[in-house]
Amino acid sequence: MPQAPEKPRSFQEIILRLQGYWASRGCAVLQPYDMEVGAGTFHPATTLRALGTRPWAAAYVQPSRRPTDGRYGDNPNRLQHYYQYQVLIKPSPPDLQALYLGSLRAIGIDAALHDIRFVEDDWESPTLGAWGLGWEVWCDGMEVSQFTYFQQVGGHDCRPVSGELTYGLERLAMYVLGVDHVMEMPFNDPDAPIPLSYGDVFRQTEQEYSRWNFDQADTDMLFQHFQDAEAECQRILGAPATDSAGRAITMAHPAYDQCIKASHIFNLLDARGVISVTERQAYIGRVRALAKLCADAFLRTEAGGATDGAAA
Amino acid sequence: MPDLLIELFSEEIPARMQARAAQDLKRLMTDGLVEAGLTYAHAEAFATPRRLALAVEGLSPQSPTRREERRGPRTDAPDKAIEGFLRATGLRRDQLEARDDKKGQVFFATIETPGRGAAEIVAEVLEHVIRHFPWPKSMRWGAGNLRWVRPLHAILCILSDESGAQVVPLTVDGIEAGDTTRGHRFMAPEPFAVTGFEDYAAKLRRAFVVLDAGERAEHIRAEAQAQAFALGLEWVEDAGLLAEVAGLVEWPVVLVGEIGADFLDLPPEVLQTSMKEHQKFFSLRDPKSGQIVRFVTVANRETADDGATILAGNRKVLAARLSDAKFFWENDLRRVREGGLEGMAEGLANVTFHNKLGSQKDRISRIEALAREIAPLVGADPDAAALAARVAKADLRSEMVGEFPELQGVMGVYYARAQGLPEDVALACKAHYQPLGPGDSVPTSPVSVAVALADKIDTLTGFWAIDEKPTGSKDPFALRRAALGVIRIVLANQLSVCLADIIAQSRFSPWRRPWDLPHDFSAADVDDIDDVSTAIERIRTSKVRDWVLDDGEEWVRRMKTALEGAFDEDKLNELKGIASDISEAEGTVFGADLLTFFHDRLKVHLRDQGLRHDVIDACLYTSGSAPSGATPGNDDLTLLVKRAEALSAFLKTDDGENLVQGFKRANNILTQAEEQDGVEYSFGPDPKLAEGLEETALFAALDEAEAAIAPAMQAEDFAAAMAAMARLRAPIDAFFEAVQINADNAILRRNRLNLLHRIRAACLQVADLTRLEG
Fold it and tell me: Which pTM value belongs to this model?
């Protein structure tokens, strides 16, 4: 076995190594999606591209927001804004587990010294109408990734099946770097002229957003925005098939943006504690209905593989 | 006789599915092989996280040749018919045999199916098994169509005998069977070939895989106990966790780690639950303090540093988990100090219990009221029981229970103590949920008993009132468990309480939901005739009508009459009286219905304890009353069981058995005569008409028995009542021996039948012996 690479020294180095690793394994390294999402899965590069027959391989960092997890920057590992690293390969290659273990090696986790295990964890996203089977990957008892074979997205069977890997970057990095509190984690090189910790970058924003999420977000406005996003999504997909110039364009992505918006607004309302248990299910159902419409629409587009049969 | 070895090598199989999958593989393969005509001596299946394996010993090398004879058409049948027969059998005409039959000459075909080699059959059966494997959940992967629990990578399938091993030719969805496998994912990843099961198991062990799950579990147990012993600690056994952990590793390495000193003052239940649920750690307990002081983790590999890195990592993860737990614990304690558990319970107003039965807060106030009523019956202070009811479910709003729902009740005890509540109130937080299952203990402290009964009866009456009763196997609200809980609490504490009274106290009982006119109903409202006609409509649709139809009609008539003419105070009172009568009637029906449910559960419970159901029936329905109108006093379960136990003991004695026979004989003769004569022989028999010693003796014995039974029953001294009844046995036997009941003399006959009635009446006081079987 080749010598394990040297340990990374900062949060960003771990990200850079993952980028390099997956680029060298043939993934298109994409950039984060420019909208508020709860997890990397919401990026259209995963949700929509897992649909249809066209092969796909992408990796990217996705800033993710979970308003209810805010702890004003005090908790050693809970954040309302954090990063996920996401890999999606379709069809899932036979050596995906080995590829994944290679990525751990790349960030300095030596399998000869650590206890790495695949523990059953089936993934389901009620808001996306999606599910898959897989594991959470444990390293010395810590969950470092989610590993999922997508079976359905937006109510559609995935054929072929995509393999999805999700790394919770802060937690993983804290482990690799031996840091106990996320805010103390070196963000850039600790020997840089201006060394910055994770706290230097994010402590204040965690405080500000925690207050806003829990106490200040205007719930009447949010309820209105939810309805607006829902209506716009439906309207976009209900528009005539061709535009005024006679071009046939299905607007799956703009519609999906509205679905993402609705989902995030729901999360904010949830954090404000204004959604009761029974209403909760109804809201999740409404977002799922949008996700389903978007998935249906995407499958009618070229990227969704709709034209493949015709071209052949 | 070759041996067969199969291994299905895949990505990690969920621990909880492994044992079942191994058994399914064995069952489906051996069934398939046998069905195809093969026999085998022995089969055993194994599972690890990455493989299912099956070893079959002594498989027959081929299936036997099968001969089957089929009768065809007559020899002079049209050609078409004969050709059809040839097609069906696959034979030529000269291969058919003509034989004489009743109808003339008929063709017979003998079809011979040659035996097939084991390899061919194994390949066929295995492919079928793989394609139709009963995984609880399965998936596709890549671009393929095969389904397995996780991606299937390799199939090892060999038949081996003295001459060596042969790969069974087989390809499933592009996976070609071979004779190689791999060892531990990290410690021995290179492939190797095997020649048979022994070779396979031995090579796997050298490649750091323990094939047998039982052996892995045993290794973990022994190692954990040894390490605990060396530290002067005890291992907290957890069979479910042990089986799961044994399914997560191929090469178990047991490591013991320290729990940070900061966390040792957390309640042991919190430590244990957090460690188990999140980390799948076992706990080591200090036998002196009862505290959990170490964790046990089971790694899947050996390392050059003897697990130091692994242990350090696990310790760190645990510390993060426990900081969360500690944060919850401290927040909860602060909230309790500030607002008490009652303050914590406030939020339960927003938690729905059931959409027709209100919020958890509504439920708590109902339980409080009921616990207050029950308290004096079970020796508890009503104020203490009410307080316990108010706080018992408060921990549902604690952060700790939010994180670990299984700690409900347990945390309540700690928080109640922290608040300085009396110990019996604190204990009720946990105990009022009990018994949670057949193995769980029953609350015994009076305050806990009062709240536990109130909690369960509120549940039962609530779901009864909204007509959500269990049906068949469906019992979504665990009402059977609730009823059994009431029964076990009453019996274990020897409580003398009348369930019907308690049910009537429930807010859901129609007794307490007066079926009344609005409180402020007045003469003026009568102008609004709708109110009253609504009331009449309610009577018409009331459940009571099914039970007491006549009364229902009567109420309607009374109400209509009350509305005729001028309306005054008297008529208002009349209307209110009717409403209250109806409530009472509905309450009786409601209570009787629920009581029957209790009786059914009681029968099941006592049957499990070895009491015959007919014995229980005999005690439930004395005086032969209908099931719906169970005898008064039958809602006192303790008394009922005492009576059933006494009767059961009595029936095991020689006297008891014979007395029952004598009773039945008397009862049969009497019943027949009564049916035949159309009269009831219930006049007292005249002792002066007694003929002979035996008849006179029976009169005397009955006088004595009757004098003893009634007061004994009154005093609930069932043994004495049975003994008194037993003393009737000899006189009754002698009486039947010597005396003819149906005497020619009608006066004598009637007197004797009346005498039999005395026997029946005396015995029925004790129990309804007619319900005894045999």
Answer: 0.76
